[in-house]
C-alpha cells in the first residue's frame, strides 16, 4: 500500500506561482508513472500532468501546457508540480496519484487563485 501526501497549496494572485509536492511512503514510486489531477468545486476530476517512470516523458493537459512542470525525485520518493502564471480557473484541490490507474488517493492540497 502506498500513502500519498500532497502539500504546497495556498492562496495566490493571478499570475503568481506555487510549487506542489507529493510525498510517497509505503513503497517506492520510482517504477510508477505518476500524475497530478485536480478537482474544482462542482466539477469532475481533471487530469493535469503525468511523468512516466521509464524515460521521464511528461504529459500535460492543454489547459496547463507551458505553465506547469511536473518533476520527480526518485531518491526522495516525491513528485512535484511547479505552477507558474496561475489563473483563477486553476483553482481546485490537487491530488497526486499513479497514472492512469489512480490507485491511491491522498487528501489533496487546495490551490486558490484570486483574480
Notable features of this structure?
4-stranded antiparallel β-sheet; 6-stranded mixed β-sheet; 115 residues; mainly beta
Indicate the low-confidence ranges by residue numbers.
Answer: none
Q: Helix/strand-derived class?
A: mainly beta
Major β-sheet strand ordering: 2-10-9-4-5-6
How would you spell out the order of helices and strands?
A: EEEEEEEEEE
Strand content: over 45%
Mean pLDDT: 94
Biggest sheet overview: 6 strands, mixed
DSSP strand tally: 10
Count of separate DSSP helical elements: 0
Tell me, briefly, the overall form. Answer: globular
Helical proportion, percent range: under 10%
Describe the protein.
The chain is mainly β and 115 residues long. Helices cover 0% and strands 50% of the residues. The chain is built from no helices and 10 strands. The chain has strands spanning 3-7, 10-13, 18-25, 34-39, 46-51, 58-60, 68-73, 78-83, 92-98, 109-114. It has a 6-stranded mixed β-sheet with strand order 2-10-9-4-5-6, with no helix packed on it. A 4-stranded antiparallel β-sheet has the order 1-3-8-7, with no helix packed on it.
How does the SSE layout of this entry go?
Elements: E1 3-7, E2 10-13, E3 18-25, E4 34-39, E5 46-51, E6 58-60, E7 68-73, E8 78-83, E9 92-98, E10 109-114
Parallel strand pairs: 2-10
Antiparallel strand pairs: 1-3, 3-8, 4-5, 4-9, 5-6, 7-8, 9-10
Short account of what is shown:
The protein is mostly beta strands and 115 residues long. The protein is 0% helix and 50% strand.
Amino acid at each position: 500500500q502506498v500513502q500519498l501526501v500532497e502539500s504546497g497549496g495556498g492562496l495566490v494572485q493571478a499570475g503568481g506561482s506555487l510549487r506542489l509536492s507529493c510525498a510517497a511512503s509505503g513503497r517506492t514510486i520510482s517504477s510508477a508513472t505518476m500524475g497530478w489531477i485536480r478537482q474544482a468545486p462542482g466539477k469532475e476530476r481533471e487530469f493535469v500532468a503525468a511523468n512516466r517512470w521509464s524515460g521521464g516523458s511528461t504529459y500535460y493537459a492543454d489547459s496547463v501546457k507551458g505553465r506547469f512542470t511536473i518533476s520527480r525525485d526518485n531518491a526522495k520518493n516525491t513528485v512535484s508540480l511547479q505552477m507558474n502564471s496561475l489563473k483563477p480557473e486553476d483553482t481546485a484541490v490537487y491530488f497526486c496519484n499513479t497514472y492512469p490507474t489512480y490507485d491511491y488517493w491522498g487528501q489533496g492540497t487546495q490551490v486558490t487563485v484570486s483574480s
